[in-house]
Amino acid sequence: MLYHNEELIETVRRSQIVEEMDLMGPISDLFQIQHTPFGGRACFSNTSLPRGTVVLDAEDSLGESISYEFRKEVCHYCLLYDNGKVMKCRINASELEPLGEQFKGKRFQGAGLWFCSPQCRDEFLRQDHILELISGYESLLNGLLFCQKRGSDEDIDEEKLNSIPIDQQTIEFQWQQLADEWIPRVQGMKPSKKLAQLPHMTDDIYCCARSICRTLFQLKYLDPESVTNRSFQVLQSNELSKTSRFPILLSFQIAVYQTLYILLPPTLHSQLSIPKFRHILGAEYGNAFGIWQMGESVGDREYLGYWLFPRASFFNHSCDPNVDKVRKGRKMCFILNRDVTSGTQLCIAYNCDLTLPVSGRQQTMKDNWFFECMCDRCSSELQTVH
Ligand SMILES: C[S@@+](CC[C@H](N)C(=O)[O-])C[C@H]1O[C@@H](n2cnc3c(N)ncnc32)[C@H](O)[C@@H]1O
């Protein structure tokens, strides 16, 4: 029942923001968001712009996920990756003491954070309210260690789980069941009994829970009127397309939610709700940018994780993009690779091999991004093919 109310409030709030989105200031002075006949909303230049123009400099990521495999090899502040070298700098409990008493006398595991230098560690620690995020991370890490020690007798048949057809009704039913049965059963339990309800935490569940923990933390302190927050609230959710393609994801999402529900400390637990959680994950599917190793060619670089930039999520894909995306540390820059006239749609390339013939590109977009590419290049090449 509670969940229905929460969902209704979220839906009304978001639809108000969608209306307000048109009235609010632009994401950039150089382009505006407009609706397209196909492909939803997209970015269009306000004026003629020369090649090399930075149309958007995005530093306001909301949530980032470093793959488990690279958790010690990527700096958790500047995202440096040094060819597989383990980052040497970690946080000690003594460094946290000036920030608060919370970890005094407790065994602190380092919250799963690694940094390339004391400077990056200090920058990370300088963020407002950072102890809340560190407590969340530390609790998730302790949960992972607990699960590794406890082991699992579950034998997950991925193939079987992925063959169960999923539609919107199934998704709603599963979440409703969690809200009606699991949450009321667990919420009144003592902490030790609650811990026994923790689903087996795989590496992927751990990484996803960390990323959501970070997003909840950032959303808690983000100005609700900021363009970043408003953009985030109206991001397209790809929950249904992704979950129906990979049905196993539904049980995965529920396990991540249960993990967060049990492990998040009160300051972040208060930020967790099913509609918010579903919007965060639904927005990540199809909007997140890959965090790639820098300085290597496309075929040779490591995929280190992903992050979300709400303001940069309105760029559509084109197989002949006029905007290049370049990561500079914690920042994503979007730079014109040619001159454009006023009113031109500004497009980036999503992760796709643009040297493939049109059939291959169409298949890649369908398989990885769940849409039929209608970019100018595909449209004209498809006309020639048929
Ligand atoms: C990152 S979002 C881009 C913004 C999106 N158009 C919106 O309204 O939120 C990606 C989604 O935009 C649409 N899209 C992007 N590029 C497209 C293209 N070349 N052809 C058709 N649809 C496209 C698809 O629905 C895709 O899932």
TrEMBL record:
GO cellular component: a single term: nucleus
Transmembrane segments: none
Residue ranges of every copy of the SET domain listed in the record: 29-351
InterPro entries found in the cross-reference section: H3K4_H4K5_MeTrfase (IPR050869), SET_dom (IPR001214), SET_dom_sf (IPR046341)
PANTHER family, per the entry: HISTONE-LYSINE N-METHYLTRANSFERASE SMYD, POTENTIAL PROTEIN LYSINE METHYLTRANSFERASE SET6
Name of the molecule in the record: SET domain-containing protein
Organism the protein comes from: Zygosaccharomyces rouxii
